[in-house]
């Protein structure tokens, strides 16, 4: 999200300073959150992974379960990108279970969508459609516009993979 700012270099510097201050005063929740924002725009997969992993340690230590759901999901995305589908599934499912336990509907929608995207990568198009449509329905229910856009994109991609070009274009 930092890359959307007009001065994202400065924004990253400020987040880095923030993380250092949170670390200095022992605010694990603040540190975990600051690291997660830095990880989101690290630009390098290995650096992102390291920042997300450190973020997760601090968020868990601070009992920030909502923050942990997001971090687990992002680590799942990295595992997916690297082709480690088993690890990705485990992380997405952990995020989903934690989100469900919290009643965190945005986290549920995110994890369902990412599990659907993973199923698409594995060629299980029926399961992918089911999961992505469930994610989209929940995202619409809660007004999560970003998740709605991504799920429509993924349904379009799925339709294209299935040879349904007209449907893909309509999405």
Provide a concise account of the structure shown.
The protein is an all-alpha fold and 171 residues long. It is 82% helix and 0% strand.
Q: How many strands? A: 0
Helix tally?
9
Approximate strand percentage: under 5%
The Rg value, from CA coordinates, equals 17 Å
Shape annotation: elongated
Contiguous runs where pLDDT drops below 50 for at least 5 residues: none
Major sheet summary line: none
Helix-strand string: HHHHHHHHH
Q: Give the termini distance in whole angstroms.
A: 24 Å
How much helicity do the residues have? over 70%
Mean pLDDT: 89
Query: Structural class, from secondary structure content?
Result: mainly alpha
List the helices and strands and how they pair.
Layout: H1 8-25, H2 28-40, H3 45-61, H4 65-81, H5 85-102, H6 105-121, H7 125-142, H8 145-161, H9 165-170
Helix pairs in contact: 1-2, 2-3, 3-4, 4-5, 4-6, 5-6, 6-7, 6-8, 7-8
Structure characterization notes:
With 171 residues, the protein is mainly α. It has nine helices and no strands. α1 runs antiparallel to α2 and α2 (28-40) runs antiparallel to α3.
Question: Could you list some keywords that capture this structure?
Answer:
171 residues, mainly alpha, 9 helices
């Amino acid at each position: 999200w930092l890359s959307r700012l007009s001065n994202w270099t400065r924004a990253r510097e400020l987040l880095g300073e923030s993380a250092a201050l949170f670390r200095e005063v022992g605010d694990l929740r603040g540190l975990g959150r600051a690291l997660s924002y830095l990880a989101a725009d690290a630009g390098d997969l290995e650096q992102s992974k390291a920042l997300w992993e450190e973020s997760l340690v601090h968020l868990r230590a601070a009992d920030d379960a909502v923050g942990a759901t997001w971090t687990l999901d992002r680590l799942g995305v990295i595992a997916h990108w690297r082709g480690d589908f088993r690890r990705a599934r485990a992380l997405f499912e952990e995020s989903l279970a934690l989100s469900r336990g919290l009643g965190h509907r945005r986290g549920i929608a995110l994890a369902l969508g990412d599990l659907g995207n993973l199923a698409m990568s594995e060629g299980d198009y029926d399961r992918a459609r089911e999961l992505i449509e469930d994610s989209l329905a929940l995202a619409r229910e809660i007004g999560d516009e970003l998740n709605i856009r991504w799920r429509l994109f993924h349904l379009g991609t799925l339709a294209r993979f299935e040879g349904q070009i007209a449907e893909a274009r309509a999405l």
